[in-house]
Write a structure and sequence with these properties.
The chain is of the alpha+beta class. It has a domain of 46 residues. It is 41% helix and 22% strand. It contains 3 helices and 3 strands. Strands 1-3-2 form a 3-stranded mixed β-sheet. A hairpin with a 2-residue loop joins strand 2 and strand 3. Helix 1 runs parallel beside helix 2. The longest helix has 18 residues.
């Protein structure tokens, strides 16, 4: 059984996920102006994951994973732990 990540580790991992999103052509934005956790949207013709700023880093990472599920990541170079987390 692997140990749980600390908040600081989740923050660092979230930065890695944001880098992966950039490689996919998806922008990442946090806001306090939504009531939901967030979602993948199209804003001015670009894909954007909008995330509720008040979520914990682990919840933000889970939202990213949920929203990119099913995307083809085969052509992207991703760190092995990021690729595994995203289910690619």
């Amino acid at each position: 059984m692997s140990r749980r990540k600390t908040k600081k580790e989740w923050e660092s991992f979230l930065d890695d996920l944001k880098e992966a999103l950039t490689k996919m052509g998806i922008d990442y934005r946090e806001t306090s102006r939504i009531r939901s956790k967030g979602a993948l949207c199209i804003v001015r013709g670009r894909q954007v994951i909008i995330v509720n700023r008040f979520l914990d880093p682990e919840e933000k990472a889970e939202l990213v994973r949920r929203e990119v599920a099913g995307k083809d990541l085969d052509e992207l170079f991703l760190r092995p732990d990021v690729r595994e987390y995203l289910g690619a």
